[in-house]
Design goal:
4 helices; elongated; 34% strand; mainly beta; 7-stranded parallel sheet; UDP N-Acetylglucosamine Acyltransferase, domain 1; Spore Coat Polysaccharide Biosynthesis Protein SpsA, Chain A
């Protein structure tokens, strides 16, 4: 048994805690002295009980006790686990926490993929990692850190910077991919992809681009459950679901999300999110029956 567990023999639960300097919509530790007395979920940003949040890593010395608590819960919402934790605290079963000081980033919103990607790319120390059978055209420039998967083709005069590109992709000539995550089987044709996330089998027609910057330099916002949420990023492009096709010369404005299996016709300017399996053509939005 690890030393940090041996020191906490007699406790029932052990949580991993992280100090935060900005508000995070999660569980905050309630601490009295050095004793953990509870966890408050998503408190008022102006009334946070501490500067420590609970990470998703809980250790139970007696797992059966948790199961017994869960069996007693009859919650109307999907929060049986959280209610059980609160009951453990109420019965004073003994809980403690360990401070975690390493890298951590929440994967709460889709754009959180980008800082996570950047973390793993930085571990390459500005290296360019190429998979098997990668083909690179004439006058192509790659600035690390970059990861490019197997059997991917980079056309002539392409520019790749600080990005992840999956396997079996075609980055057509004169395209630029900057600070973006591209999954597998992505096809580009003379496009600009900046600070964006592209799912599997996404295709962009010639001249289509992902705008990633506001003229007023304010943080980019994106819609979440009907509300505009700040991404905290000055540069943020589009998030495109798998099997989408974007027509020639179409423009996706900053922070836009495109649902999977959506087709967007040529010359469209998309300033709002588009639901999955949608067909946008001549400013009309209908269901995309291609996949039926």
């Amino acid at each position: 048994m690890p030393v940090y567990l041996q020191k906490r023999q007699g406790k029932k639960t052990l949580f991993l805690a992280k100090v935060v300097n900005e508000y995070f919509p999660g569980g905050y530790l309630l601490i009295k002295g050095n004793k953990l007395i509870g966890i408050e979920e998503k408190p008022d940003p102006k009334k946070v009980p501490s500067n420590k949040i609970k990470l998703v890593c809980d250790y139970f010395f007696d797992f059966d006790s948790l199961i017994n608590f869960l069996k007693k819960i009859k919650a109307e919402r999907d929060d049986c686990y959280e209610v059980s934790l609160n009951n453990i605290f109420k019965e004073n079963k003994g809980s403690d926490y360990i401070d975690y000081t390493g890298y951590w980033h929440a994967l709460k919103y889709p754009w959180d993929v980008l800082p996570m990607m950047n973390f793993f790319l930085q571990s390459q120390k500005n290296k360019i990692v190429l998979g098997k059978n990668v083909k690179i055209g004439k006058y192509t420039k790659i600035e690390g850190p970059v990861f490019i998967g197997d059997d991917t083709i980079l056309g002539d005069y392409t520019l790749i910077r600080a990005s992840h590109i999956g396997h079996n992709c075609l980055i057509g000539g004169y395209s630029e991919v900057t600070r973006s995550y591209l999954s597998h089987h992505v096809f580009l044709h003379r496009n600009y992809i900046g600070d964006s996330i592209l799912g599997r089998e996404v295709l962009l027609g010639a001249g289509a681009c992902c705008a990633n910057f506001r003229f007023d330099k304010k943080p980019i916002k994106s819609m979440i459950n009907g509300k505009r949420v700040s991404t905290g990023r000055e540069k943020m492009g589009a998030i495109i679901g798998e099997k989408c096709k974007i027509g020639v010369s179409s423009i996706l404005l900053p922070g836009v999300k495109i649902g999977k299996k959506t087709f967007i016709g040529p010359g469209e300017v998309i300033g709002e999110d588009i639901n999955e399996q949608t067909f946008v053509f001549k400013e009309k939005i209908v269901k995309n029956n291609f996949f039926n």
